[in-house]
C-alpha cells in the first residue's frame, strides 16, 4: 500500500470522514496477500518507501501478469526487471498500460507519479557503451522510486579526459552509480573526484580474463578510493535501490 494512501486514510479517520471500522477494513490485507503464484508484499512501500518490484527472470508471463495485477489492485505502480522481448510481448498483450524498455529489459505500469523526492540527481556513469543496458536498468529503477537520473555514458579510463570534462556535473550528484566491465577501474577514479556516495557496478563486459565480470568485481572490492561500495555483477537494479536507501535514510 502506498504511504500516501495510508496517510490520507488516517487523516480522514482523524477528521471523522471515515470510521475506524472502515479504516481497519481498508488495511486488512496488510502486510501481504497470498495469490497462489506468490505472496505479494503490500507492506513493503510502508517499510522501504517503494512497492515490491517483480524480478521477471524465471517467471512466466502469466505469473508476472497475475502478480502485477495484484500490486495494481492496491493502487501501487508496477516495475518488472529482467524480461526478454518475447516475454514482454505476451505481458503487453495481457496487462493494460504495460510499457517495455528493451534496452533496460524492464517494464512498468505507472498509473500515478512516483513520490517526489528532495534529493539532487543520481549520476549514472558508464565506462563504455556496452555497459549502457545495465545503466538503463538502474535509470528505470531510479525513476520508479522518484529519483532523477543524470546519465553520463562512455567516459571510461581509456579516455579519461571525457570524464574530467564532466567533473562539475558529477559533483552536483547526491549519489553516483559507476558501471564498468573489463578491469573495472572507473569507480576508483570517480571515488577520488567526488564527495557523494559512490556505488560501483561490475559488468560482465570484457574478453576472456574478464571472467564474466569477476575481474571487475575484485578490482572494485579492492578499490583504493575510500568508501566505494560494490553491488553484484550486472546489478543496475541493486545499485539504484542502494541509492534509494541511502537517500531515504537522509530524508531525501
Widest sheet: strand ordering: 8-7-9-10-11
The helicity comes to 25-40%
Structural class: alpha/beta
Beta percentage is 15-25%
The CATH class label of the largest domain is Alpha Beta
Second-tier CATH architecture of the largest domain: 3-Layer(aba) Sandwich
In DSSP terms, counting alpha (H) and pi (I) runs of 4 or more, how many helices?
A: 11
User: Biggest β-sheet, characterized?
Assistant: 5 strands, parallel
Total domains, how many?
A: 2
Shape: globular
Low-confidence stretches: none
Q: Might you state the CATH topology name of the largest domain?
A: Rossmann fold
- Measured between the Cα atoms of the first and last residue, the distance is 20 Å
**Strands, total number:** 11
Mean pLDDT: 89
Oligomer: single chain
Alpha-carbon Rg, integer = 20 Å
Give the topology string: H per helix, E per strand: HHEEHEHEHEEEHEHHEHEHEH
Domain PurE: 120-252
InterPro entries: P2CMN_synthase_LarB, PurE_dom
Transmembrane segments: 173-199, 205-231
Protein name: 1-(5-phosphoribosyl)-5-amino-4-imidazole-carboxylate carboxylase
Task: Please render the helix and strand layout as text.
Elements: H1 3-15, H2 20-26, E1 32-34, E2 39-41, H3 44-48, E3 54-55, H4 61-73, E4 78-81, H5 85-94, E5 99-101, E6 106-109, E7 122-126, H6 132-144, E8 149-152, H7 160-164, H8 167-171, E9 175-180, H9 186-191, E10 198-202, H10 214-221, E11 229-230, H11 236-249
Parallel strand pairs: 3-4, 7-8, 7-9, 9-10, 10-11
Antiparallel strand pairs: 1-2, 4-6, 5-6
Helix pairs in contact: 4-5, 6-11
Amino acid at each position: 500500500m502506498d504511504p500516501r494512501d495510508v496517510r490520507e486514510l488516517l487523516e480522514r479517520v482523524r477528521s471523522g470522514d471515515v470510521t475506524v471500522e472502515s479504516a481497519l477494513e481498508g488495511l486488512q490485507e496488510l502486510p501481504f496477500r497470498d495469490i497462489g503464484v506468490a505472496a505479494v508484499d503490500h507492506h513493503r512501500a510502508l517499510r522501504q518507501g517503494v512497492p515490491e518490484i517483480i524480478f521477471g527472470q524465471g517467471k512466466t508471463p502469466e505469473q508476472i501478469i497475475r502478480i502485477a495485477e495484484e500490486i495494481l489492485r492496491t493502487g501501487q505502480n508496477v516495475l518488472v526487471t529482467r524480461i526478454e522481448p518475447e516475454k514482454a510481448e505476451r505481458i503487453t498483450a495481457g496487462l493494460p498500460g504495460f510499457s517495455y524498455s528493451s534496452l533496460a529489459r524492464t517494464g512498468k505500469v505507472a498509473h500515478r507519479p512516483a513520490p517526489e523526492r528532495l534529493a539532487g540527481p543520481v549520476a549514472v556513469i558508464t565506462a563504455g557503451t556496452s555497459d549502457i543496458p545495465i545503466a538503463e536498468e538502474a535509470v528505470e529503477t531510479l525513476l520508479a522510486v522518484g529519483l532523477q537520473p543524470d546519465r553520463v555514458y562512455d567516459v571510461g579510463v581509456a579516455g579519461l579526459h571525457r570524464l574530467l570534462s564532466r567533473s562539475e556535473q558529477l559533483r552536483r550528484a547526491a549519489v553516483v552509480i559507476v558501471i564498468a566491465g573489463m578491469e573495472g577501474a572507473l569507480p576508483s577514479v570517480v571515488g577520488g573526484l567526488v564527495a557523494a556516495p559512490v556505488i560501483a557496478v561490475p559488468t560482465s563486459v570484457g574478453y576472456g580474463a574478464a571472467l564474466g565480470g569477476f575481474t571487475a568485481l575484485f578490482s572494485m572490492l579492492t578499490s583504493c578510493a575510500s568508501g566505494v561500495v560494490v553491488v553484484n555483477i550486472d546489478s543496475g537494479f541493486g545499485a539504484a535501490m542502494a541509492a534509494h536507501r541511502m537517500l531515504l535514510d537522509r530524508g531525501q
